[in-house]
Amino acid sequence: METKMSFRLPLILSAVLAAWSAGASAETIKIGVTPGPHAQILEAVKPIAAKNGLDIQLLEFSDYVVPNAALDAGEIQANSFQNQPYLDNQKADRGYKIEAVGLTVNFPIGVYSKKHKAFADIPEGGKVSIPNDPTNGGRVLLLLRDKGVIKLKDGVGFKPTVLDITENPKKLKFIEVDAAQAPRALDDVDAAAINTNYATQAGLDPVKDPILREDPKGPYVNLIAVRTADKDKPWVKILVDSYHTPEVKEFVLTKFKGAVLPSW
C-alpha cells in the first residue's frame, strides 16, 4: 500500500502543478458587450478561449457610445457590439485608434408595431421612431428606401439622415430616439425600428414580429474591435479563432433561430 501511494503521489503533485501552471499562464482580457446576444455569444466563446490560455471577462454596457470610449481609454481590451459603419463614424468623430480584427454576426434590423399588422397600414402622417445615432438611423432610412416607403438623395452612403429624404408620400413623421429606448417608444408611435439585441430584451421575436425587416446582408455585419496598438498581440488571434469555431456557429444558429446570423 505504501509503495502504491508513494508512486501515485508524484503523479498527483505533477497534475496539480500542471493545472496551476496553466492557470497562472492564462492571460486575462476584458471585453465590452451590449446585453443580449453579444453577451450570450461571448459566454459560449469563453470556455473555448480558456482552453487556449485566454481568460475572458465580460463587461456589459447599456448603450452604444461607452464601449468604444472604454476601449480607447484602456479600461477594456476589446469590444463586440458594433458594425463597421458605426465604428468608422465613431473614429471620425472622436479620433479613436480602434480597429476591427474579426467579423462576428449579423442582426437584421426590424421595424415593429403594436398598432398595425403591416407597414402599409400606417396612416398618412403616422409616427415612426428610428435610432438617433447616424449609423443605425441611416440604416433604417435605407431599409425604408429599399422597401419603397421613401426616397433619398443620391449618394447618401450608409449614413443618411431625415434631411436626406426627398420624397415621403405618406408624410411620415420620423422621431429619433436612443436605440436602447426604442422598445419603450412602441406604445407612443405607429412603428419603431429596433435593433435585434434590444428587441430580444423586450420579448420581441426578431424573425416573426417585424412588419419590415432588413435583408441579412450588406455592410452591417458586427465585429470584434481592439486598440490599434494591440491588434497584433497573440491574444487577439486566440480570441478571434475561439469565436470562429463550429461550436460557436452552432450555438448562434440553435439559440437565436435566425434572429442572429453567423458571418464567418
TrEMBL record:
<dbReference type="Pfam" id="PF03180">
    <property type="entry name" value="Lipoprotein_9"/>
</dbReference>
<keyword id="KW-0732">Signal</keyword>
<keyword id="KW-0472">Membrane</keyword>
<protein>
    <submittedName>
        <fullName>Methionine ABC transporter substrate-binding protein</fullName>
    </submittedName>
</protein>
<dbReference type="GO" id="GO:0016020">
    <property type="term" value="C:membrane"/>
</dbReference>
<keyword id="KW-0449">Lipoprotein</keyword>
<feature type="signal peptide">
    <location>
        <begin position="1"/>
        <end position="26"/>
    </location>
</feature>
<comment type="similarity">
    <text>Belongs to the NlpA lipoprotein family.</text>
</comment>
<keyword id="KW-0564">Palmitate</keyword>
<dbReference type="InterPro" id="IPR004872">
    <property type="entry name" value="Lipoprotein_NlpA"/>
</dbReference>
